[in-house]
Peptidyl-prolyl cis-trans isomerase D (Aliiruegeria haliotis), 615 residues
Amino acid sequence: MSKGKKASNIFMYGLMGMLILGLTGFGISNFGGSATSVGSVGDEEISAEEYFRALSQAVRAAEAQGVTDISLATMDALGIPVQVRGQLAGTKAMDGEAARMKLSVGDDEVARMITASSAFQGITGGFDREGYDYFLEQNNWSVSDFEETIRKEATRNILQASVAAGVAPPEGYVDVLAQWFGERRSFRWVRFDAASMGDDLPAPTDEEITGYYEANEADFTLPQMKRITYAWLTPDMIAATVEVSEDELRAAYAERMDQYLMPERRLVERLVFGSAEEAVEAKQKIDSGETDFETLVADRELALADIDLGDVTESELGGAGTAVFGLTEPGVVGPYPSDLGPALFRMNAILSAQETSFDEAREALQAEFGREKASRVIEDMINDLDDRLAGGATVEDLASETDMELGTLDHAPGVQHALSDFETFRAAAETLTEKDFPEILELDGGGIFAMRLDEVLEPRLQALEEVRDDVIAGLQEKRRLDLARETAGEARAQLDVGGSLGQNGAVVESATKVTRTGFLQSGDPILAEAVFGLEEGESQLVDLPGAVVLVQLDEVLPPDAEDSQIAIFRSAVAQQSAQELANDIFTYYARALTADAGIRFNDAALNAVHTQLFR
């Protein structure tokens, strides 16, 4: 089999899989009327079943993208039915053109495609006739109708491939993009940070404060917020009131004895050798000063992390334990036997034994077990709280009648408050409306809450006195940034008269032969955009958050011909642009066929489909 034929087969199998997946579960028998066609393109009819299936699939796709209201009105607003009818019209126009050209695939090809489809393979890997028949029955397909659908799908793809075959991007297109992608630049820059400017700035006057406030009102305007009344309860709120018995605490202490009674340990590395002779020779070289432990590790092409044992007890070291624990300061001992062979052991640090008595651990155990018991207490409360709310209790009632605590907050994304750290609350608050009744929701960590939306607060400019400190801080930051810009401007003026970058002692940073993408991975995108807009030898001031940068472009180089990424980029651009051109050509071709054939839709039949799908 030729490579082209094999690729074509793989393509056809993929189409079969997508077609079968799209059709599954959309069998329909009638629409309560006599019409079986919702429209036509030339002599090709668009059946009600085809429209139902295609529209159903589009609705499912909209749901997958987050559309929750799948009413006909919403779908119309999104333009989905119109899009589906347009796609079906294009398909039918292609079918009509294929028929005019007497283009089709034979029965043998249709049979081969169906029997080769993984959707109809049995447990032995062969064609499962019963599974095929079951699929047709479940979806109200006759054998002839389904096979004709497969035939037309394959024929359309042959026609599409012939229309768009051999399309290539315009001459020079790939070269221009590759030049843009791979162009290299060398440049230097000096950063003037606002934070280092104006340590002795005078305090601003009231007029300056008011002026800055009025010029930057957006910075001091609160977003639209929801005023929410809530009642909540967390384990920490009631942990101190939950009784934990002495026996429970002592049992927990005993179970964790290894955490509270930790023997003396050492931080140890182990370097294993192939024989005892090699290990002895290595130890002698260390003792004589001919080499050191790190060099031996490097000679074995290992890293220190590869031989690190971590903190170990004497018993865990086996035969080397006594020698290692006999050291009073870091050093190397050995060789001693190990599970992997003779080894040298280096001790790096001594970790003294640690003992935590029950009395010392009591407070932490009490808090931990108190929280655990409190979580169970809260969990047991949920059904009762739900019943109270169902019976008409308010959020205030929950707080007055139970251990829940009452509060009010103004919520908006990014605004900090008592519950803002909880994802469950943030998600619920975003969708909360004044029509919603309070319900018990769970928080991470075992807490619960219920809430009510009291009102929606429109964006509000905060009074100057409320944000005076923030206004002053913003004004002083602006002053420092202005000083940074002024200093950077003076440095640039020196460049213009023959000075050098950083001649006043400023730290000069540099980048050599970097591409756009290369610098973006490690540098500032704003600086990168400025650099790649300069001509060789030019300089520019670039405003960054909290700083001004003076950058000078030293050299512009073409793409590196030996860079494999350039070749990959050229290939990807050529393929993508060719595919996009082919798609455009086919789209215009299909539109022309549709226009020539003429489109007709039956509104009554369309409405019948809509009634069944959106009932």
